[in-house]
Every structure is written in structure tokens, then in C-alpha cells.
Write a structure and sequence with these properties.
heterodimer; A: 103 residues; Helix Hairpins; 0% strand; B: mainly alpha; two-stranded antiparallel ribbon; two-stranded antiparallel sheet; 21 helices; 73% helix; globular
């Protein structure tokens, strides 16, 4: 039977991280970019929890993950408020079209 | 025993506690005086001033706070209070007080009088974040304080909502900032995996051992550098800077360009110094642990930053945007103080920051006073202003000459110390490149003066008469620049007493 080890978790988190970066680069909708960001944060969370479980590092990593979850929530709240504000001004949330400030 | 330890640690963060209490008082005052908000700026200013007094009081205090009882090396905690941190906190406090004064006379901020309480509360949030960034010695506290600073500044960048560009600045700041701090968090998680700890001191002692995978370590350090590089707006993470600086209210732009950058630099210096330096020899040269080549990477970043900043500034017609590129260039100069890895370079950074605070805030103050009257920051609207408003013209000339780094202003002394540190470290080529960059910067600074003085004033040229308070504010910023250009001994002595970064 297959034993799930540290490497499996790291592969999952690396895939999540790459998907997050891919989403941020390719998506035009600001909300989708923010979802890519959540993937990056959760990839880091998986790393923290996996390392603290398999490295016998105590409970530190899991506490860090809790902090990050709270912070991600706060960040999402502020980010959505800002996106809403942008929608009111520009009537869309397309990152490429909101580009008045340029040389 | 544990409680005693906690009590001592609380003593070390007294300024932060006082700041948090003032934040609560400010929010309550905002609720109580919801009809008449005239008192709010005074309350905000007084709170910052009291915090400043506590910071000054901390000058001779040093020690680690919030030690963990389960770690093997229990001496090192979450925070380290030392004179280096106190110096940077004083810079943050000084610029915050000036920003409170700026805000009370800024046209943009006066249009949102009803929300002024929230405005100052968010500024307090930024200050609190910077304070913790300056003293943090644990990667998690570093990440949390960075986010506290960022979250407050995302909102402030679009706070006034007067023009389209406010919300655009806010969105761009948010997207760039959130992504780079997310990448930084991933780097932190990898470092935690390699070393089993997030404490900088423990990481330092572990990476001196033989069992470190160099490739993984370098990868994670580069990821962390993304987060810090974004905060100090160094290339190649500077793309947000011009847009955000142009779009944000001018008081916030000034605050971001000085205080937030100072906190970012304090974090970068402390991170590099405590994590990657094994010892400091008698001559003040830092010996780097041979795991990550900071020197060449920082030289490359610094040269790239100042060259990009200076050359992009040449074509800017919006003064705020030009000052944004100029602040990118200055970040490049300041990085030069770090690449030499000596105490002398650190001294040069500290001196430079004092002068940078005065001249950059001064330049933004002048731009703000002109924008209050003309509602524009375009360079063509500056034609002939030197004749109609002599005080504004002359002080702007002094600020710009100081930013270029010409004698007899303070900016010259700051650059001089940086270049001396470079030459002493035998980096002549880098010093020459930096010098040539200063020559380039002369063009775009003097171009503004050309518009102000070499174009005749017409009947349409507005006359800008600053109020009495603003005149005093201008003089407070102009006179030190001239005085420190000749008599700079006190600043040097202050900086020399602030070189202590607690380490192994």
C-alpha cells in the first residue's frame, strides 16, 4: 500500500503554487487574480503543516498556518472592497483595461 | 518565571503599546465627536508625539523579547530592540508627524473631512506595522507586520475616491503587493522546512553547519527577497511605484516614499545581517556565511534600480510621477550602502535616510501646495511660478538641488558618505556608475527649475501664498537641509550611536 509521505505534500503544494502564479499572470478579471493569490497562500500553508508534521518540529508550523488563514481572510475582505470600489468607478474589473495611469 | 519573562518583553514594546492605545483613543474620539471633526488631527498628532517620546526613551535599552521556552536556544525571541531599530523608528515618527501637518493643509484631504478619523486610524495602522517590521527577528512576525503595513496602505492609496486614478492606484497596489507577499510567504515556508525554525538567529546558526541544501536555500531566499524588494520598490519589483505614487493622495505618496521605504530597508538590513553574517571583525567588516552570494545580487539590483529610476524619470511630465521615479533611484543609492557589508556602509545608510526624509518630504510639500491652488501636477503648470511665488520657488530649488546631491545641501553629504563607503570597500566601478547616475538625475530635477524660472510669468500664472503654518513647515524642512550641508556633525554622531544590530 502506498505510504503518504512528506514528498507527496510538497508536490501538491508546488502544483498549487504554480497554478496560482499561472492564474495571476493569465487571468484578466481582478477577482480571478485574487483567487490565484489564495492558491499561493494555501500552498504555503500546506508546506507549513506538512513540514511541522513530518519534521517533528512541534506545533509551530500549524500555528503559523492558522495565522496565515486569518490574514488571508483579512486580505480578501480588503481586496474585495477595493475591487468593488474599482467597479463603481470604471464599471468593470478587467485589470488590463484599468490603465489610465501611464507614461 | 515565564510570567516574569513576558513582563520584561512587554517593557521592550512600550512604544508599540502606547501607539495601539492612541489608536483606540483616536477611534473612540472619532465616534464621540462625529459631528465636528476639527479635533481629530490634533489627537492624532499628539498620539504620535507621545509615542515618539517613548521611542526616544528607548535609546539605551536593548534586548530580546518574547523568547520561546521550548527552543534549545532560548535567548533569541520574536523581537530585538536595539539602537538601529530606535533610529529607524525615529525616522518613521518624524515623517508621520510631518504627514499629519501636511494632511491638515492638503486640499485633497480637506475634501473628505467626514472620514478624517478613519484616515488617521489607517495611518496609525501603517505606523504600527512599520514599528514591528523594524524590530522583528522572526520570519512570521516579519510577514505579519509587512501585511499590517500593506493592508492599511492599500486602503489609503485609494482613500479619497475623488478621481478615477485613486481607485486605480489602490487596485494596482493591492495586486502587486498581495502577490509579492504571497510569494514571500512561500519562501518562508521553504526556509521553515530546511531549518525547522522561523527565528532568524536559529536559522543563522543552522546554515553555518554543513547539512544545508544550497540550491533550496537560495531559492527560498530569493522568494523572500521578492517581498522585501517590493516594499523598498527596488527593480525588478518597482512597477507599481509610479502608478501608485501618481494615483494616491499626495500626503500618502509622501508617507509611502519615506516611512514605508525606511521600514523596508530596516527589515532588509536586519534580515541580511542577522541571518547571513557570521561575525563582524574589528574594522567593522561583515563576514558573510558562504551560502548565498548577497553581494553580487545586491550590486546588480542596486545598479538596475537606480539606472531604471533615473532614466525613466527623464520623460515624466507629472511631478508626482517624476518624484516616484526619483524615489526608485534613491532606493538604488541607499542599497549601495548595504552592498559593501561594512559598518561604514550602514552608517552611510542611516545618514542618508535623515537627509532623504527632509528633502523628499519637502519636495512633496511644495508639489502639494501648488496642487492645492492649481489642482494639477503637470510640469507646464509650473511655468513662471518662481517669479509669482518666490518662497515656494526658492525652497523647491533647494529641495531639488539636495535631491541631486550638490553642495552646499545635505543631500551632498549623504551621497558623499555613501561613495566614501564604496571607495573604501574598493568598489570603484560601482561608485563611478552611481556618480554618473547622479549626473543623469540633474537633468530632470533642473528641468523643473527651468520651467519655474526661465519662463516669464504671464497674467494667468497663479500666485501661491502659503498660509503661516505652511511657511513655518517649509522653513522647518529647508533650514536643516542648508545647515546640515555645512554642519553635519550632530547627525553623524547620532548615526554612529545607532549602529548596534543585536546579533550572535
Amino acid at each position: 500500500m502506498l505510504q503518504v509521505g512528506l514528498a507527496h505534500f510538497l508536490v501538491v503544494s508546488a502544483i498549487l503554487f504554480s497554478l496560482g502564479i499561472y492564474g495571476i499572470i493569465t487571468r484578466k478579471n481582478a477577482v480571478m487574480v485574487l483567487m490565484g493569490l489564495e492558491l499561493i497562500l494555501n500552498a504555503a500553508n500546506i508546506n507549513f503543516v506538512a513540514f511541522s508534521k513530518y519534521g517533528n518540529l512541534g506545533i509551530n508550523g500549524q500555528i503559523v498556518a492558522l495565522f496565515v488563514i486569518i490574514l488571508a481572510a483579512a486580505e480578501a475582505a480588503i481586496a474585495l472592497a477595493i475591487v468593488l470600489n474599482v467597479y463603481k468607478t470604471f464599471a468593470n474589473v478587467n485589470v488590463d483595461e484599468i490603465n489610465n495611469l501611464k507614461d | 518565571m515565564e510570567l516574569n519573562n513576558l513582563y520584561q518583553s512587554l517593557n521592550l514594546i512600550l512604544p508599540e503599546i502606547v501607539l495601539s492605545i492612541s489608536l483606540v483613543v483616536l477611534v473612540l474620539a472619532d465616534l464621540i465627536f462625529h459631528k465636528d471633526k476639527r479635533l481629530i488631527p490634533y489627537i492624532a498628532g499628539i498620539g504620535i508625539a507621545i509615542t515618539g517620546a517613548f521611542v526616544i526613551n528607548q535609546f539605551n535599552v536593548s534586548g530580546f523579547g518574547f523568547q520561546s521556552s521550548t527552543q534549545t536556544m532560548r535567548n533569541y525571541g520574536l523581537i530585538a530592540v536595539d539602537s538601529f531599530g530606535v533610529f529607524f523608528k525615529l525616522i518613521v515618527i518624524a515623517s508621520s508627524i510631518l504627514i499629519v501637518f501636511f494632511s491638515s493643509s492638503s486640499g485633497e484631504i480637506n475634501k473628505i473631512k467626514g472620514r478624517i478619523g478613519e484616515y488617521y486610524a489607517l495611518i496609525y495602522g501603517m505606523i504600527l506595522g512599520m514599528f514591528f517590521m523594524i524590530i522583528a527577528t522572526d520570519l512570521i512576525l516579519i510577514y505579519l507586520s509587512l501585511e499590517l503595513l500593506s493592508l492599511s496602505s492599500y486602503v489609503l492609496a485609494g482613500f479619497t475616491k475623488l478621481r478615477d486614478r485613486n481607485s486605480e492606484a489602490s487596485l494596482k497596489y493591492l495586486l502587486y503587493g498581495a502577490v509579492s507577499s504571497g510569494i514571500m510567504l512561500f519562501g518562508i515556508s521553504i526556509i521553515y522546512g530546511i531549518t525547522g525554525s522561523t527565528n532568524l538567529y536559529i536559522i543563522n546558526s543552522l546554515i553555518q553547519g554543513p547539512h544545508i541544501n544550497l540550491f533550496t536555500l537560495s531559492f527560498s531566499v530569493i522568494l523572500i527577497l521578492v517581498g522585501i524588494g517590493y516594499k523598498i520598490s527596488s527593480a525588478p519589483f518597482h512597477f507599481w511605484t509610479p502608478d501608485v505614487y501618481e494615483g494616491a493622495p499626495i500626503t500618502i505618496t509622501a508617507f509611502l516614499s519615506v516611512a514605508s521605504k525606511a521600514a523596508g530597508f530596516a527589515l532588509l538590513i536586519r534580515f541580511v545581517k542577522t541571518t547571513f553574517v557570521s561575525y563582524i571583525d574589528a574594522e567593522g567588516v561583515w563576514a558573510l556565511i558562504n551560502v548565498f552570494d548577497w553581494q553580487s545580487i545586491l550590486i546588480a539590483i542596486s545598479i538596475l534600480t537606480m539606472t531604471l529610476g533615473n532614466f525613466s524619470a527623464l520623460w515624466q511630465n507629472n511631478l508626482k510621477r517624476m518624484l516616484a521615479y526619483s524615489s526608485i533611484a534613491h532606493a538604488g543609492y541607499i542599497l549601495l550602502g548595504l552592498v559593501v557589508f561594512t559598518n561604514q556602509g550602514l552608517l552611510a545608510i542611516l545618514i542618508y535616510f535623515v537627509f532623504y526624509l527632509l528633502m523628499n518630504l519637502g519636495a512633496f510639500l511644495v508639489v502639494m501646495l501648488i496642487a492645492n491652488k492649481t489642482n494639477s501636477e503637470e510640469i507646464d503648470d509650473y511655468d513662471g511660478l518662481g517669479y509669482t511665488s518666490p518662497l515656494i520657488g526658492v525652497s523647491f530649488a533647494i529641495f531639488l538641488i539636495s535631491l541631486t546631491g550638490l553642495p552646499p545641501t545635505a543631500g551632498f553629504i549623504g551621497k558623499l558618505y555613501l561613495f566614501i563607503a564604496l571607495v573604501d570597500a574598493k568598489m570603484i566601478v560601482v561608485a563611478v556608475i552611481a556618480l554618473l547616475n547622479s549626473v543623469v538625475s540633474l537633468y530632470y530635477y533642473v528641468r523643473v527649475l527651468k520651467h519655474m524660472y526661465l519662463t516669464k510669468a504671464t497674467d494667468y500664472t497663479p500666485q501661491i501664498i502659503p498660509s503661516f503654518g505652511n511657511k513655518i513647515l517649509l522653513l522647518i524642512l529647508v533650514i536643516p537641509i542648508l545647515v546640515f550641508g555645512i554642519y553635519f556633525e550632530p547627525i553623524i554622531n547620532l548615526a554612529k550611536n545607532s549602529l548596534v544590530i543585536l546579533g550572535l
